[in-house]
Amino acid sequence: MNSYAAVDLGASSGRVMVGRVGPDSLELTEAHRFPNRPVRVPEGLRWDVLGLYAGVLDGLRAAGRVDSVGIDGWAVDYGLLDAEGALLGNPVHYRDARTEGVAEKVWASVPPEELYAATGIQYAPFNTLYQLTAARSTAQLAAARRLLLIPDLLTYWLTGEQGTELTNASTTQLVDPRTRTWSYDVAARLGIDLELFAPLRRPGDPAGVLRPEVLEQTGLSGPVPVTAVGSHDTASAVAAVPAGDGERFAYICTGTWSLAGLELDEPVLTEESRAANFTNELGLDGTVRHLRNIMGLWLLQECVRAWGDPDLGELLREAAEVPALRSVVDAQDAAFLAPGRMPERIAQACRASGQPVPATRGEFTRCILDSLALAHRRAIGEAQRLADHPVDVVHIVGGGTRNALLCRLTADACGLPVVAGPTEAAALGNVLVQARAHGLVGERAGMRRLIARTQPLTRYEPSGDAAAWRAAEARLAGAAP
Q1: What are the residues whose beta carbons fall under 8 Å from the beta carbon of 329, sequence distance 6 or more?
Q2: What's the pLDDT tens digit per position in 72-96?
Q3: How many whole angstroms separate alpha carbon 241 and alpha carbon 341?
Q4: Residue 32's beta-bridge partner residues?
Q5: Which residues of the chain have pLDDT under 70?
Q6: Which residues are catalytic?
Q7: What is the dihedral of CA 316, 322, 327, 331, to 10 degrees?
Q8: Strands 393-398 vs 418-420: parallel, antiparallel or unpaired
Q9: How far separated are the first and last CA of the chain, in Å rounded?
């Protein structure tokens, strides 16, 4: 069995996982977990990327001998380097307010319909394109000679090699999903210099070897190659969906965000798809992830933080006793994007729509989970219609698989069986892309068969009142401005 270190960076924590892969075996263990705490400074909200890098080094030290390293993480954010390769300040957090009102400036040069037809990426205020537009007049951008997305930045510090991994690059809204390369016309019309970006590389491409200084800091013996994986964590997670051969499936990658959609061979670039706010991000082997971003368990995480971190299991037990669909909110509403005061904002949304306002923590929790299941229903239903691609099963992967109530509610809402697992999908996809690059596993279907054989999965059959979900969907649509 070969060992692969998967660095998996999330919005609230990072970890280094070690995957041991054999012809018919796949074992994953956690070597090290470390916090990812954004810091608010006078200039705004920033990532502590030096703390993240220190956590990566500690994790590689704890991992011991490995045959390769791969890094995945969240999308859109980046670090800027000067002419000597030094970082120009801490990367800006995607929840920072600097992109407020920027979209209208972009659309004045490239109307939203043309932007979507060229890039296939849904509107989100924090897309890299809008961040770069917001940064246009800053001294930092003027001094920059290289832009590296966060996983590529950490890879650069490990290896000294610069590259831009394609699945993450596609989230910048600067890539043409048909040609799988830069959208030069969009960049030119917006005055964005694509020379800032390092050359594109794809999952499985070599990304260098650990520098001697890194070997010394981690106690590893070289050479240790670093392999490009699906560096957008959703790309790695979808690669680990344990779908059967020929299975018609949808997926939901759950965590801070819910990413719900389909794996396709070609993008869906219609005006109807744009109006429905679906995105076309690139995945493993040239696939397209036609999906919708939903606010996800961020809503519950923020409530739990506001309540002083009560026991989550107790909250879920209380929520299970609350009547279904008493109150629902739009889990895609940008009003829930910023941190802070989440219970108050949910209460206000219920009050404004004429629904009962949750009074207990259990009622708030049930409102959130019902709302997420309803958002999953809407996204999966619309994805099938927009892509003319019917499905028979929904795979839920990621941290939300631990939430049995959410999985059951999603099955009921969608009216489809839900297969939940694996929980560590992003890390497993990361590991298997490395293993495939080194000849240990075969094609994508073979990767998925290996996961299905070796990882615990739970199946939820739909039940309950389908009419109640239709009514809640209509109620929410009627409350929209």
Answers
A1: 336, 346, 349, 350, 353, 367, 368, 371, 476
A2: 999 999 999 999 999 999 999 999 9
A3: 34
A4: 16
A5: 479-481
A6: 233
A7: 10
A8: parallel
A9: 56
